[in-house]
Amino acid sequence: MKTSAVVSAILVVLFSIILVIGIILNPETSIRKSITIEAPETVVWAAVTVPDDYANWYKSIRQVELYPEVSLNKSLRVVDYSIIGRELKIKERIEIYQSSDRITFTQVDTVRKSLIHNIRQSIVLKALPDGSTEAVWEITYIAPPVLSKLMDFILVRPAFNELINLNLSSLKNYIER
Are 51 and 75 in contact (CB under 8 A)? Predict the structure, then answer.
């Protein structure tokens, strides 16, 4: 009887701690990684803005379906991703900002595909003095419920870190080959 009361008390305390942590944590998470690519910025820019090249280096994409341009430098795509061992089909808005050498992919469908949603990716390029290019990849997403935030911390964030590293190194290898 005493053992079950102690176990119950411990579970209540652990649940309370998890609840407080979930409430305190910001629901939006951003992960940013960078890599230096030994190529001019124009070469890297061409690879990240030409969808036909994605299959050569963008390892999480299985298939891309492009829609006609909505407006100058804005279009839509439906992407089949393989992320964290799950296949996700996400509709994204593509925005190309040539003045700042940035391309952004923002989730526009409102149907939740998993515990995470409002996924936004951006790739920003910066020409370096030695002629190489720094590529910065950032993923921002929301995981609002308490259990989602815990899953985010334990599973999703490490998987996205690995995914960004894989995509950046694949982009580097593709361009420098």
Answer: no
